[in-house]
Amino acid sequence: MFTSRELSIAILASGVTVLASAGIRSAAPALSSTVFDWNSMKVETTNVGARRTVFRSPTATLDELECHVTTLNPGEASHPPHRHPEEEILIVREGTVESLVNGTMQRVGPGSVIFQASNQEHTLRNVGTTPATYHVFSWRSSATPPKAAGTP
């Protein structure tokens, strides 16, 4: 059994934790309507191609909305197959890629849209002879499961 003092301390600690968490979430301003000019995006060279980070921010309705653009050199993969709680939409801008979807590699080209559901294994590989570029949108909301230990 808990004493009244122990119960009071536990309730106070819980309240402080909830308030601190709310303060952390609201510390970042919500993303407002804006334009991200392709020609102004910083290009970061990677081992497999390049990456442009567009934004990563809370919005009025999401805990976090993230967008980046990846360019894969021919024959390269974005990363080994993995899974994470965030859902993702990828839009192929140029090139030909194979995407792991529901356990099957599927080949698609420019204009194609790929949806990766929460906690489903996925990867992407450039199977063409030219660079492949695609836009990635992922989000977290109150319905997003927590990240498992060791997930990216």
Briefly summarize what is shown:
With 152 residues, the protein is an alpha+beta fold.
SSE layout:
Layout: H1 4-27, E1 44-45, E2 49-57, E3 64-72, E4 87-94, E5 97-101, E6 104-108, E7 113-116, E8 124-126, E9 132-140
Strand segment tally: 9
CATH architecture of the largest domain: Sandwich
Average per-residue pLDDT, rounded, comes to 86
CATH superfamily label of the largest domain: Jelly Rolls
- Radius of gyration, Cα only, in angstroms? 20 Å
Tell me the count of domains: 2
Question: What is the distance, rounded to the nearest whole angstrom, between the alpha carbons of the first and last residues?
Answer: 41 Å
**Which stretches of 5+ consecutive residues score pLDDT under 50?**
6-25
Cross-sheet strand order for the largest sheet: 1-2-3-9-4-7
Instruction: Provide the CATH top-level class of the largest domain.
Output: Mainly Beta
**Order of SSEs, N→C?**
HEEEEEEEEE
Strand content range: 35-45%
Largest sheet: 6 strands, antiparallel
Secondary-structure content class: alpha+beta
Number of helices: 1
Reported by name, the CATH topology of the largest domain is Jelly Rolls
- Mass-distribution shape: globular
Helical proportion, percent range: 10-25%
